[in-house]
Amino acid sequence: MKDNIAAYDAEQCWPVGAIQLTDINVPEIVDLRATVTLACSYDLQNQKLHSVKWYKGNREFFRYAPAIIPPLRTFPVEGVQLASDGHQCNAFVCRIRLTRLERHSGGEYRCEISGDAPQFELANSSRNMTVEVLPQHDPIISGLGATYHPGETLEANCTSDLSSLGTRLHFFVNDKPVPIEYLQPPHETTLDNDSYLLRYRTLEMHLPVDRLFPKGVDHAKLNIKCIAAIDSVRTTAGRETATTVTVQSHHWWIVMGGSIHSGGHRSRVLPWSQIGKSFFRGVIGFWMGSINSPS
């Protein structure tokens, strides 16, 4: 029996025995409010499946044994809440779903498969999962007007959604990154929410229109985009928000019969501390409620 136990590399499945655990899917970082699917696939090499077991750490919380009635058994483990209809196990794959996540839901998850008699060969592999509060909304751009003229300055704030992980903010104009000399150092505000320290960041841009306005062009559109990304979440694309402003030369306004001083209305760029006290007061309340509400 001992000689038949399959051995595995820390990152990949390298079976010594005949049966093979070909793949394991455990997300690296998940949102506290999400329902998560764990899955492992296997090749029994013409053997019959005796059982599939899922562990959190060294504690078993799920077992599928098709030859036993009932074939499914669950065991209580802290931080593990199985969805009532979230399992699909057969001779090729076993998928389970976790719901009502909490901080203690994070940890090492291991899938172990066992062949039937007489060999009872084993194969297993594990992955780590971390539970965080991830952004659920796109960043917000504030402070921009509709129309600008040469000599004026594009002033805007970009503010990220709440997250328990640090967020990087980036401004782009016509898909080109705004040089760092036109950006203020980002400001971060933190909020304590039970077991998580939540934060949002604000990046302020002051970009002269003359730095962008092409010579000899009387009228141009500028696409202003802000991207919020989390370094540690490699599998999730950054969230982004974009808007468009118009740059018009004084000559264009005179030809069109407009007033040089009648540019589009723009809101005032608030200091980051003022944003936290005013604009985001109601939004933060909504976000905090969604985090604390039961799944």
Distance between the termini: 44 Å
The share of residues in extended strands comes to 35-45%
Please state the structural category.
mainly beta
Ranges with pLDDT <50 over ≥5 residues? Answer: 1-16, 252-268, 270-288
Q: Quaternary status of these chains?
A: single chain
Order of secondary-structure elements: EEEEEEEEEEEEEEEEEEEHHH
Sheet with the most strands, sense and barrel status: 6 strands, mixed
Radius of gyration: 27 Å
CATH superfamily of the largest domain: Immunoglobulins
CATH topology label of the largest domain: Immunoglobulin-like
Mean pLDDT: 81
Tally the beta strands: 19
Written account of the structure:
The strands form 4 sheets. A 6-stranded mixed sheet has the order 2-10-9-4-5-6, with no helix packed on it. It is mainly beta. The two termini are 44 Å apart. It has helices at 250-255, 272-277, 279-292, and strands spanning 20-25, 29-31, 36-43, 49-56, 59-64, 72-74, 88-89, 93-98, 107-115, 122-132, 140-142, 147-148, 153-159, 168-173, 176-177, 187-193, 196-208, 219-229, 239-248. The protein contains 3 helices and 19 strands. A hairpin with a 2-residue loop joins β4 and β5.
Secondary structure blueprint with pairings:
Blueprint: E1 20-25, E2 29-31, E3 36-43, E4 49-56, E5 59-64, E6 72-74, E7 88-89, E8 93-98, E9 107-115, E10 122-132, E11 140-142, E12 147-148, E13 153-159, E14 168-173, E15 176-177, E16 187-193, E17 196-208, E18 219-229, E19 239-248, H1 250-255, H2 272-277, H3 279-292
Parallel strand pairs: 2-10, 12-19
Antiparallel strand pairs: 1-3, 3-8, 4-5, 4-9, 5-6, 7-8, 9-10, 11-13, 13-17, 14-15, 14-18, 16-17, 18-19
